[in-house]
């Protein structure tokens, strides 16, 4: 029982990381249909923000708290720059966006190598987050994992609030549902796009801060995690926040359970097969926006 | 050939009833016009017949039940359609567009060969729709009216027995409309034609029978004169004005 | 597409087609001269070996050009098919190197196995192995394509799914240390069907085989592109839903191009192994798979020769640049993904037409 529970929690914490990463994608890919392969490098930028801040701020706890808004701003600014310089020219060509942003990712990775060096760097985690929490029944949970889970859920709540209640959220949803109509109605779609991209990329920065608590920080960290995060958005359904949330956790739990019963190696194939099987049932993802468009 | 029969057709989008129990009988060789205000469910009717949207009820053409079949299976039963905004393959030439329309019945292996000469059905259609002069132009470079003609030409080589035309003369000049109307009359000789159209002048000249739809239901049906005399039609279209002369 | 008899279309060829036919023949002839006469004469053994490797990448690129340029399927998982072909070939060559009844060297080294795994055994047969290099990737593509094209998973969804497959394949291979060599892959291959790969003469023979295979694959792609099927493929790419209303199932149309592209990648993998002497997870994962695409984009995705030339040019640039300034290569590669796609979506192959247009 304890074993199952602890696997379950492992799965949930994998899911929380996936969710943090996929959340930004569900905005930029899900809402704007832009496949930003450099999203992983924005995560990396968020992680390096912690590293740089810790050169200045010695307290690990303070640096972490300061890092959250700064990483959001740094990654967000990178996203806006990317949107303004390249993606703007590629609307309606989503596959080309994918390749172009992969090129951007390569450049950012190499820049990180040239600035911070190729080896991974370490950051210090605050004492509060290095220990573990002992639950009744012998269950032991790393407190950093709990922190990430809380952070992910907070980010979901905040994003939902922004989308549902603010005028920016209304404008974002209007542009998603009918870009032409929104433009005709006097919405500055360009500005809305840039803001959407700012938030989506900023969330990558937050994810980067969180990742410093559980793993090394290096130039290649983005590539490894981005593929699964995109899967989460695809399987969750385009433009659907709740799909992203559910699928992130489902995929995390599935992965941890399969890895536990087999090996990491076999699990990677099984998870892929499960996803293809799932798409037989729901080819447009878990939740879909039904429209009458055609041909 | 026994024409098109639609019984109690219903299409529901997320709770919105777009087509609400439509019954329709279009005998073989008829040129039926379907009119009605925007949102009456006309295009959805065609979508349901061609398998694009899910519907309940029954649709029979030529003794084949259509509902529940896949789009390409329905097309193979001789059901062809055009679209409100002409949908042609813009990166291919006019000839290639027509040749593809002729092709689903070709043996798969024969597809692996290049086209040697122009198949006779394609050549015929080129002449019929008057696009012989531009046959090697990319379809994307055609004028709007020409694209609609190309779509009709594709229906011809496809050898569709039921033609479903969604606003075929929208944006056409008067002479183009006349030519299209004449063509429809000729096509109906051995086919069944159903046209969605807003243009009342065009309707009066070329429709044999008319169905008026409103809010997903059939409001009235009959000859042009009968339908025009129907007070319910006048009410839907014009509020209460008596003459249904120019309605868009 | 059911097999209903079609009206026989006799092949008297239009004059215009005859002219393009001549052009193509001339193109193939000059390609053959360049590959079979000029390159071996101009390049030393080492450079010719590099060119052999580049030509393998060009074979993959021809397939991607067909699937992506003509079919609109951006496949970011060609490494999987490349790997299947490569591993199938390498397994046979390792078994042949070890000699009958012996385990391949790496299996002895890791010492986890005392007998050959059952799924290795058929690869001892050269005919089975050769057929498998192409048939296995095609089979996997057929199965996967059936599942995803039928369900209308396409566009970005398809690209991401194909990328996830590449990721899964690489992780899987890394974990199977005992049976696939894990991270190292299958290395140190000595012989090729009885020919010693250390002998420069035999290495030259491998080059000629690869060059021949590339020309053959270009011919296959050329025929597919000019055929009625090729026209249909473009139609599906541009308006998949429209094609259904003409009685076609677009899934079948896409499947053919996808499976052929997979077969080409498998063939390339099989030829890569004797040319380079190694196949490993690092050659099949997400990164190499997307790198296969960049040459296609640079050369011109929808053209016949563009993808192959682009692939060779990019691979050559990589060697030339990373020999001198390794970090500069990555920046350059990044720009290769960005600049042509943003500013020249048709690739270099579209330059002549654009220039002609500009002059008018």
In short:
The complex is a heterotrimer of chains A (295), B (248) and C (360). Chain B is built from 9 helices and 10 strands.
Commentary on this structure:
The complex is a heterotrimer of chains A (295), B (248) and C (360). Chain A has 295 residues and is mostly helical. Chain A is 73% helix and 3% strand. Chain A has a domain at 18-223. Chain A has helices at 2-31, 39-56, 60-85, 94-116, 143-165, 167-177, 179-184, 189-211, 221-236, 241-261, 264-281; strands spanning 132-135, 139-142. A two-stranded antiparallel ribbon of chain A has the order 1-2. The longest helix of chain A is centred in the N-terminal third of the chain and has 30 residues, at 2-31. The N and C termini of chain A lie far apart (52 Å). Chain B is α/β, with parallel strands linked by helices. Chain B has one domain (4-238): Rossmann fold (3-Layer(aba) Sandwich). In chain B, the strands form two sheets. In chain B, strands 6-7-8-3-9-10 form a six-stranded mixed sheet, sandwiched between helices. In chain B, α4 (120-128) runs antiparallel to α5 (144-158). Chain B is globular and about 55 Å long. By secondary structure, chain C is mainly alpha-helical. Chain C is built from 15 helices and two strands. Chain C has helices at 15-42, 45-70, 78-98, 105-110, 126-150, 156-175, 177-180, 200-226, 228-238, 240-244, 250-276, 286-299, 306-324, 326-343, 351-359, and strands at 191-192, 195-196. Chain C has a two-stranded antiparallel sheet. In chain C, a hairpin with a 2-residue loop joins β1 and β2. Chains A and C meet through α4, α9 and α11 of A and α5, α6, α12 and α14 of C.
Distance between the termini of chain C: 44 Å
Percent of residues in β-strands of chain B: 15-25%
H and E string of chain B: EEEHEEHEHHHEHEHEEHH
CATH architecture of chain B: 3-Layer(aba) Sandwich
Number of helices of chain B: 9
Tell me the distance between the termini of chain B: 34 Å
Shape of chain B: globular
**Count of DSSP-assigned helices of chain C:** 15
In round numbers, the mean pLDDT of chain C is 90
